[in-house]
Amino acid sequence: MNETKIEFLSDEWWHEYEAVQLGTFINEGLIIALPLCFPELTVPIPAAESCITSLDVTDDGVIYGGTSGSASHAFVARVHSVSGHVLDLGKLDDCISCPAIVCGKNNVIICANNNDTGKIFIQKMGSMPGDDIQECVFVKYPIENIGVPIKNEQILHAVADKNRNFIIGTTPNYIFKVDIDKKEISILSEAKNIGKLVLGSNGTIYGMEEDNSLWKYDSTMGNIIRKEIFLPGEHWNNGTSCWTRDPNSNGLYIADSHGQIYHFTEKDKYFTPIAKCMSGPVTTMSVTFDGRLFGFCGEGISSLFCYNPKTKTLKNLGCAASTIGKRRLGYIFGDSVVGRDGYIVFGENDNFGHLWLYFPRIMG
Asked: Which residues of the chain, if any, have pLDDT below 50?
């Protein structure tokens, strides 16, 4: 008579498996993936058109985003209070990428590209439903094309001034300005631009040139000052650098293509190296209300990191995995903003992209 032998997993094997699992996926806080639609009510943005490459947030916490792929869309999301939806605002005519979306006071400015040229679109901010459980009424306004900054040059990035009256943007060879209310585009200066822009603490806007120098837009004088500041090191020229502002300390963070993070003090014009990420590049990072810096780094499958300025330590939190809401793994993230209540909203730069809400662990 043959005997059936049953082998149970040993405690040692299970602990090893658990350690690998906890070391791979996000092990602090909670992350949730939201599809680009109102579930069971609207159709999601098509998978090949849903790579999220730009995000911005209004003063009252409404999130706007832009997608790239075989076509480009703008969308709006409201995830606080009795809300939890994403709404496709429409396809951007003849465009395949959206490097920047910027919230004004009453309008949203959308910077998009086709294969050759960048275009500027504007859309009035519509009313948002306050109750997604009982009544859902959306108002969408037409998307208006207000012009081309530079013919045959794509837009690289753009940010708004601190009062949200205008935006400053770049193409590979020029810096331009868009007056939001007047819907006017003007050229400010020539510059060999790479990378993204950032709004400083005093209203100054910074951009990067090919020779590792920074230009700044002086909001008081209304002019461009070039080559006043130079970046440290040499890992900047591929344009994969990443900026964010710390509203708590009025400082700026910037990461180079190898994942080295610097803290930049505008007053002293000095870059202090503070931490090195597990891998580069850093694709996006944001500072939440308690001063901690969160971002994603790495190619292919990126990992979430947290830099705590109080302890001066950087921690690998693992890869994104959502098991609440949408069950999904997240690999690539293109932009991020801080939500109304301090959570971080990450835009997934992948086919069938989702908005990922990350709620950090509350620190004691």
From this structure: none
